[in-house]
Specification:
The protein has 187 residues and is mostly helical. Helices cover 86% and strands 0% of the residues.
Length: 187
């Protein structure tokens, strides 16, 4: 049974290889046909010809320089690489300095603003709490004033009834306007 499975796997893999081979062939033929069609345009032909000639000339010149002075070409190439490395190191240092500047100044300022806003929020919360306490005290004072007014009103009524009783008048009896004592004018 395992032989059948391996047989099927080998058939599958050979089919995939055939399909992949056909795909690669199709891509190559498509590239060749596309390149041939592109060459029908005269501008494209001229560009390809000039680029090819330029590449050929540069290659011949490079080969000639290497033949004439191989150590000079090597030294020149090494100098160019060193110069490029130096420029790259300067760029990296500049980037690091910029990062440190941004990190030091801007991030520091952002943290400072964050701390100050936290302080402001806590101060506002404290002020709100204190305002609630003040409001409670004002309410308590208002209630105290109202209680004092109620006590004074009932106390003055008690003193009026006491003073009426002390003069010998019955507060439940009808008032007699003719029987006023001296000092009780207009009561």
């Amino acid at each position: 049974m395992t032989q059948v499975v391996s047989y099927k796997n080998s058939n599958v893999s050979s089919n995939e290889e055939e399909q992949n081979g056909k795909l690669v062939k199709g891509m190559v033929w498509g590239a060749v046909i596309g390149g041939a069609l592109a060459m029908l345009d005269s501008n494209t032909r001229q560009k390809v010809a000039s680029n090819t000639k330029s590449l050929k000339d540069n290659t011949i010149e490079m080969v000639g320089q290497v033949k004439n002075d191989p150590s000079g070409v090597k030294n020149d190439l090494q100098e160019r690489i060193k110069s490029a490395q130096s420029i790259l190191k300067d760029a990296i240092n500049d980037a690091q300095n910029l990062y440190e500047k941004i990190n030091g100044e801007i991030v520091g300022q952002v943290n400072q603003v964050k701390e100050e806003s936290t302080d402001i929020l806590s101060t506002a919360k404290e002020a709100t709490s204190e305002l609630k306490d003040i409001g409670g005290k004002v309410k308590e004072a208002g209630a105290e004033v109202m209680d004092e007014n109620n006590n004074q009103s009932s106390g003055s009524m008690n003193s009026v009834s006491t003073s009426n009783n002390s003069t010998g008048f019955n507060s439940n009896s009808p008032k007699n306007n003719d029987s006023k004592l001296p000092g009780q004018i207009g009561r």
